[in-house]
Amino acid sequence: MLNTIYRLVAPRRFEVAFNEIDLFGEKVIVRPTHLSICHADQRYYQGARPAEILAQKLPMALIHEAIGKVVRDPRGEFHTGESVVMIPNTPTEQDDVIGENYLRTSRFRASGFDGFMQDTVAMDRDLLVRLPDGIDPSVAAFTELVSVSAHALRRFDRFAHKRRNVVGIWGDGNLGYITATLFRAMYPETRLYIFGAAFEKLADFSFADRTYMVQDVPADLMVDHAIECVGGQFSQRAIDQIIDHINPEGTISLLGVSEYAIPINTRMVLEKGLRLFGSSRSGRDDFLATVELYRSNPEILAYLRKIVGAQVEIRSIQDMTRAFELDIQKNIGKTIMLWEK
Fold it and tell me: Is there a contact between 309 and 335 (Cβ–Cβ < 8 Å)?
């Protein structure tokens, strides 16, 4: 079957390409229906990556956050029309110690090879997870991002010591909001404090025990553990503030992505005996855990619905460009492409 792919060939320019998909092979054929734009997609679209990286990666289809409907499964394990979330991380080997999303041999859609901006996608069946009936597809579209938070919190549960009276999350953007939503469901007895830079964003964290503007944090406020969801140029300030306000032997989970090296006050890390760990991407187990959280805590979906931003019907390359340009202008929220191709 001839398949159409919509590849970014240069900043702000998409072009059509074609490939052949084997309808009678082992892979499950999925038609994308809802695609979510993330910051990584925007860095490619705007040409905000180093020139040598762009030359290496492009042309490439963007988007790694997406759901779709099954078109064909030669084994019949998935039914035609069944809604599934597609996993972008594609491992090529197994390791008894290192997670699939940290193996250097793993490939990742919309980073090392074509993402989900295609008419149909041939997927390995273990890279598909069934979605619950009745789920809002515009929320399900960014399940990949939710799974990243779920992955980080599962690692937090492994690494953080048992005193979890107060946990602070730094960052009031999409990642901070999603992580806080999951944390509230997973640790209902822990007091949750949110630290942000925008009063109107902090107002959305109605489920948190307290919210603070970062410039107004009381000097004597302390947390047992902290999660950093800031990233970018403000990572250093956030990490410095966390180190100041975390109790000795606390754990700091780093999720924010920065293009630049971030200085860290190692003197106080040593004096307090702190543990810092990073988390990135996610694997199949994290997707399964996320979908189970959707089932067991339906209020999560209601909270996540609040960060669905623009929803753009996509019927042409011009519509794709419009969606990415609208996404640049947003203050917060997830731009969803309704894939009507």
Answer: yes
CATH dotted code for 2-141+307-339: 3.90.180.10
- φ and ψ of 299, to 5 deg: -65, -25
pLDDT value of position 200 = 93
Q: Give the span between the Cα atoms of 309 and 304, in whole angstroms.
A: 11
Give the pLDDT confidence score for residue 260 in this predicted structure: 83
Task: Give which of 91, 126, 128 is closest to 107, Cα–Cα.
Answer: 91
**Could you give phi then psi for residue 173, rounded to 5 degrees?**
-85, -165
Judge contact between 141 and 36, C-beta under 8 A. Answer: yes
pLDDT at site 112: 86
- Tell me if the bond preceding 50 is cis, omega within 30° of 0: no
Its pTM surpasses 0.85:
yes
Cα–Cα nearest to 327, from 56, 5, 38, 29: 38
- Give pLDDT tens digits for 168-199: 999 999 999 999 999 999 999 999 999 999 99
CA distance 148 to 179: 9
2-141+307-339 and 147-278 share one fold:
no
On whether the CB atoms of residues 87 and 287 are closer than 8 A, the answer is yes
Residue 151 dihedral angles phi and psi, to the nearest 5°: -60, -45
Parts of the chain with a pLDDT under 70: none
- Which pLDDT score is estimated for 85? 98
- Domain ranges in the chain? 2-141+307-339, 147-278
Residue 69 CB partners (closer than 8 Å, separation 6+): 30, 31, 33, 81, 82, 83, 84
CATH architecture classification, 147-278: 3-Layer(aba) Sandwich (3.40)
